[in-house]
Amino acid sequence: MTDIVPAWAEEFFDDGPGPALSLAFPGRLTRSWAYGDGSGRGVRVAVIDSGIEDGHPLVGKVQQAIAVEDSDDDDDEVQFVEAPHDDLYGHGTACAGLIRAMAPEVELVSVRVLGPDLKGSAYNFANGLEWCIDNGVHVVNLSLSTANEDYAETFYELIDQATQRSVMVVSAMNNERKRSIPSEFAGVFSVACCEGSDRERFLRNPRAPAEWGAVGVDMEVPWVGGSTIVATGNSFAAAVMAGHVARVVGAHPGITPWQAKTVLAALAANAETSPPARSPSKRRSTSSLS
Description:
It is a single chain. This protein starts with about 30 loop residues before the first helix and ends in a 23-residue tail after the last helix. The chain is about 25% helix and about 20% strand. Helix 2 (about 90-100) packs parallel to helix 5. Strand 8 and strand 9 form a beta hairpin. It is α/β, with parallel strands linked by helices. It is globular, with a radius of gyration of 20 Å. It has one domain (about 40-265): Rossmann fold.
């Protein structure tokens, strides 16, 4: 055999890359196997949003708080301010509370990139996501997106980095029919609302870009000042789904995003437990969603 091998192939020669994580799937996936005790213990979940109200009765403790702000010295740079901070709107607290309700022992990390008007720059948003990838976060909840085409490539690269490091990025589709960057990228867990009120129930959509459906209509969610409100939005569906993802990660440390998607697809309410027989002489028709 030649001593020269193609680039990227070196790791698969000699002793190989070492052992790969084996999930040892049972005969049929069950929630108890997939979620373990369901606590999300040891999982760092970042909420990139308007901040999280630390100590809210439905949120509890925020383990770390980072504010991504414009640099005082350079308009083209940002600064990461690590210190307790408020939720400037309420949206981040709502998402954090839903995640906490699903996986009560996760470590919450507030990454504030939005202001009191729930607006922020795509640049700060991208830097917040990069900070999460570089700082040991396991699950990132993005109940926000950008339609700024100039940042599409930046977010492609960030999602690739996250996937390669087994960082799960759960991202809400926009509430309007327009670009949802990075929510529409295949590397994220893209989420929109589905019918019902049961947070334990979610759906798997085989047609992109909204890959997962979770409850998010007329939900009572935490809000600033220790309060709650009733709200609707894909934002809240994403937070519910992030809780499901955190459970899986907590039960199976080191799991990759594609493995986690496989596990959740098997648990979806619309998963086929026994695929129907199809006649080889007939073609299955398909239709696209509008």
